[in-house]
Design a protein that fits this description.
The protein is an alpha/beta fold and about 300 residues long. Helix content is about 30%, strand content about 20%. The longest helix is centred in the middle third of the chain and has 15 residues. The protein starts with about 35 loop residues before the first strand and ends with a helix.
Length: about 300
């Protein structure tokens, strides 16, 4: 992806599954709440991701403003809402320079968060950064609400997909994800990733290849998580790692709470063992991430 090829993707935008076809290049806001110019909400060395992604110098995290999914309980809703006031406009060249600066500061990877609606520009920036010496992996940190055509724009540059699979239940998706079609969208993305990234390798030496799936258990939806785990074991577990998040952030009061009862947590551990899911992490009531293989 070259700088001069970026603009056309924003003329009638179809980058996300909502395909709003607005002329973001011409000054119309997309359903994501953004124009064609990239906006960054924050940049820094992040230590709050899964342990394998932040060891040593931390993850070089770049948070973009806007989002096309609109989850009602988004923990980043101050920057994901339409036309958030918190973002700073950056050019492709400036984003490339930011990635290079994060590497010099000790980042072990570049972690682009909520990148979908700026995918062509990010691809151009990372291409430019690599031409100027960027050597650490790129983590594509996405809600999972993706079109495979947009994933294809960045795939050659991505080392690891950090992919949310929030739910496969349409009612849970309607309530918590802002889109009842989310389950079908994520299944198409997973099928594409299974074909294009059949092997996941993540190690202490910095190798990042494939897909790390995050699944957040929403309050009162444990049965939907059981459904998800059976599906995951049968379709994607051999291709990826899993990170199960068992605490929930409520943006209305800023509190984090453990969403499972003691019986449900015990049932979860037993199910993971039964299904043979051992690669990845599970967060507990203390919010610490533990290696699945040690638990099951």
């Amino acid at each position: 992806m070259r700088v001069d090829a970026v603009a056309r993707y924003y003329d009638s935008c179809t980058l996300c599954p909502r395909e709003c076809r607005t002329n973001r290049q011409g000054g119309e806001y997309g359903v994501c709440g953004e124009l064609a110019h990239m906006r960054i909400a924050s940049v820094g060395l992040h230590h709050g991701e899964e342990p394998i992604l932040v060891q040593g110098g931390g993850s070089g995290t770049i948070f973009f403003t806007g989002c096309s999914l609109h989850c009602p309980a988004c923990q980043n809703q101050d920057i994901s809402q339409a036309q958030s006031p918190h973002g700073v406009v950056v050019t492709v060249e400036q984003l490339a320079a930011t990635a290079l600066r994060l590497e010099r500061q000790g980042a072990i990877n570049i972690n682009v968060v909520t990148p979908t609606h700026f995918a062509p520009s990010i691809a151009a920036a990372i291409t430019l950064a690599k031409e100027h010496g960027l050597s650490i992996p790129l983590v594509y940190n996405t809600s999972g609400y993706e079109k495979v055509e947009s994933l294809a724009l960045v795939d050659s540059l991505v080392d690891l997909y950090l992919l949310d699979i929030k739910t496969l239940d349409c009612e849970v998706a309607r309530t918590w994800c802002g889109s009842q079609e989310y389950p079908e969208v994520i299944k198409r993305a997973v099928q594409w990733l299974a074909e294009h990234r059949p092997v996941t390798e993540i190690d202490e030496n910095g190798a990042l290849t494939g897909t790390l799936v995050r699944h957040l258990i929403f309050p009162g939806t444990f049965s939907a998580t059981v459904e998800f785990l059976h599906w995951y074991a049968n379709t994607f577990a051999s291709h990826s790692w899993l990170s199960l998040l068992t605490y929930f952030y409520d943006p209305t009061d800023g509190r984090r709470s453990f969403v499972l009862s003691s019986a449900e947590y015990a049932q979860l551990i037993a199910l993971l063992k039964e299904l043979g899911i051992t690669r990845g992490y599970l967060s507990g009531s203390d919010q610490r991430s533990r290696w699945l293989g040690d638990l099951v």
